[in-house]
Amino acid sequence: MATISTPRPAPVPPSTDRSSTVRPDEVAGDLVGAIAACCTPLAAAPLSAEAAEQLAGVLKAIAVPARLRLLSMIYARDGGEACVCELTEPLGLTQPTVSHHLKVLVDAGLISRDKRGVWAYYRPVPGALATLGALFRPQSVAAGTPPEHCAQR
C-alpha cells in the first residue's frame, strides 16, 4: 500500500512559539497513524490476495452513501428487520434502486434477506459489523493492553 506523505513545516528553533507552526490535526493524524499501523490486525500480517478481494468487496458495499444509510436503518430498526417497502421513502429512492442496494449489502454478507410472499425483509447478519470493525480496531482496545511491540514505541 502506498503511503501518502504531506509536507511538514520546517523545524522551529526551541525558543520560537510553535503554536503557529504545528497544527493539532497533524499531531493527531501522526498519533492515529502510529497506533493504527502498530496495533490493528490489518497491520499484523499482509493480507492474502483472496482476503484483500473479500474485504474490498465489503468496503465497496458500504462506500456508497445510500447503502450506508440502508445498513444503518436496518441495524437500528426496532424488531431487527425491515421491508424494502419501508426503506424507499426515507431515502427518497425508487423501490428498484433500493432493492439493488440491498442486494449488494446481502452479497457482502452484511444483511440477510427473507422472502415472504411478495415482500422481502432484511435483517442484520449477527456479528458482521463487529467482525468488520475488529479489522480496524487497535488490538490494545480489544485485549485491554497494547501488544508488546506497541509498548516499545
UniProtKB/TrEMBL annotation:
Gene3D superfamilies: Winged helix-like DNA-binding domain superfamily/Winged helix DNA-binding domain. Keywords: DNA-binding, Transcription, Transcription regulation. Residues 47-144 form the HTH arsR-type domain. GO terms for molecular function: DNA binding; DNA-binding transcription factor activity. It holds the Pfam family HTH_5. Residues 1-24 are annotated as: Disordered. This is Helix-turn-helix transcriptional regulator. It comes from Candidatus Frankia alpina. The lineage of its organism: Bacteria, Bacillati, Actinomycetota, Actinomycetes, Frankiales.
